[in-house]
């Protein structure tokens, strides 16, 4: 008697697992290739690595119980999903030439980040530029008291005491042509950084997925794509740093890259870099903080923990051409 052949209850359970795996996989494929403003698909695309792991389990169960149709469909779906994310694990950038500087990115969770940790982290990593989101006026004062403005003598800050909408740029180099980008709920900023080779710095924070109405979330990312296309048409290098509230698995994010940019994680072959959430009992599982670049190469990328915040910070060393 064969357990996998003659045990009817086990075969039925295996078939159910296989069908569920295929159904979720099919929905996930739809999620990563659509820009439709549908919240369940937007949410599903955020969890592709977890879905992929579950599908592999379903595939193994179907294989063990010889459910060949389910095996075939599962292999195709896993292959499609893997084909989308696998380029992230292959380094494709150059680390030669150019003047180097270090960019730090951090979301402060409604101004709750520990100001001492923020300042110490920036100094420890010798950050040259710091982009921040969810910046409050009270946190600006606390950071000033801890000496952040001594480390970064140039700032462009638009805090929001409610927390979620505030944003800021801190820099060791002069900032010019500063302005707020229109078309968003939270504040998004742009400035020219007077580095050895001046470059355009965009500090971004579109509205959060699922919480923001899906049509608004989709529209904000379309607005960001159009604005990045305009920046790419200029002659200056461009760095886009922030909490994008979208993952590489979302087609909307890949359309930002298609506007002429590369992701630091993609250049370095770092794969999906989970940055959110960090205030739970489990590790961060979603990669929504990114540093994109044009005319700039990534040399290294590191996640850092900022106490009080619900995102990992990013430390990215780059070379500007």
Fold and architecture overview:
With about 325 residues, the protein is an alpha+beta fold. The chain has two domains: about 5-90, no CATH class; about 95-320, Deoxyribonuclease I, Chain A. The protein is built from eleven helices and twelve strands. The protein has helices at about 5, 10-35, 40-45, 50-65, 70-85, 115-125, 135-145, 150, 215-230, 250-260, 265-270; strands at about 100-105, 130-135, 155-160, 165-170, 175-180, 190-195, 200-205, 240-245, 260-265, 290-295, 295-305, 315-320. The strands form two sheets. It has a six-stranded mixed sheet with strand order 3-4-2-1-12-11. A hairpin with an 8-residue loop joins β11 and β12. α2 (about 10-35) packs across α3 (about 40-45), α2 runs antiparallel to α4 (about 50-65) and α9 (about 215-230) packs parallel to α10 (about 250-260). The protein starts with a helix and ends with a strand. The model has no long low-confidence stretch (mean pLDDT about 95).
Summarize this structure briefly:
The chain contains eleven helices and twelve strands.
Number of helices: 11
First-residue to last-residue Cα separation? 69 Å
Report the CATH C-level class of the largest domain.
Alpha Beta
Query: What is the H/E order?
Result: HHHHHEHEHHEEEEEHEHEHEEE
Rounded mean pLDDT score: 95
What's the main sheet like? 6 strands, mixed
CATH superfamily of the largest domain: Endonuclease/exonuclease/phosphatase
Low-confidence stretches: none
Radius of gyration: 22 Å
Helicity range of the residues?
Answer: 25-40%
Per DSSP E runs of 2 or more residues, the count of β-strands stands at: 12
- Level-2 CATH architecture of the largest domain: 4-Layer Sandwich
How much of the sequence lies in strands comes to: 15-25%
Q: What spatial form do the alpha-carbon principal axes imply?
A: elongated
For the record, the count of structural domains works out to 2
Strand order of the biggest β-sheet:
3-4-2-1-12-11
Report the oligomer: single chain
Would you tell me the structural class of the helices and strands?
A: alpha+beta
- Would you give the CATH topology of the largest domain? Deoxyribonuclease I, Chain A
């Amino acid at each position: 008697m064969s357990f996998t052949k003659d045990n009817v209850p086990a075969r039925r359970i295996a078939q159910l697992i296989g069908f569920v795996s295929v159904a979720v996989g099919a929905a996930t494929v739809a999620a990563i290739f659509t820009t439709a403003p549908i919240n369940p698909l937007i949410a599903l695309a955020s969890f592709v690595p977890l879905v992929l792991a579950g599908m592999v389990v379903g595939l193994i169960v179907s294989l063990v119980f010889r459910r060949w149709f389910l095996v075939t469909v599962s292999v195709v779906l896993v292959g499609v999903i893997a084909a989308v994310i696998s380029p992230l694990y292959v380094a494709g950038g150059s680390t030669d030439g150019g003047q180097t500087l270090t960019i730090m990115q951090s979301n402060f969770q409604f101004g709750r980040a520990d100001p001492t940790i923020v300042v110490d982290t920036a100094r420890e990593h010798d950050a040259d530029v710091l982009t921040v989101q969810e910046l409050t006026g009270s946190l600006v004062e606390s950071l000033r008291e801890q000496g952040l403005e001594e480390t970064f003598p140039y700032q462009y800050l638009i805090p929001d005491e409610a927390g979620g909408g505030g944003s800021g740029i801190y820099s060791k180099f002069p900032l010019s042509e500063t302005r707020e980008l229109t078309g968003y709920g939270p504040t998004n900023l742009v400035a020219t950084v007077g580095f050895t080779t001046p470059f355009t710095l965009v500090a971004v924070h579109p509205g959060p997925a699922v919480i923001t109405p899906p049509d608004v979330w989709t529209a904000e990312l379309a607005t960001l794509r159009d604005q990045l296309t305009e920046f790419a048409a200029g002659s200056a290098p461009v760095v886009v740093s922030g909490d994008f509230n979208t993952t590489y698995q979302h087609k909307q994010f890949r359309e930002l890259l298609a506007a002429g940019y590369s992701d630091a994680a993609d250049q370095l072959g770092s794969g999906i870099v989970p940055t959110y959430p960090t205030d739970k009992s489990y590790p961060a599982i979603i990669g929504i903080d990114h540093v994109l670049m044009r005319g700039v190469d990534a040399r290294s990328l590191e996640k850092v923990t900022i106490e009080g915040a619900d995102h990992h910070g990013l430390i990215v060393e780059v070379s500007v051409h």
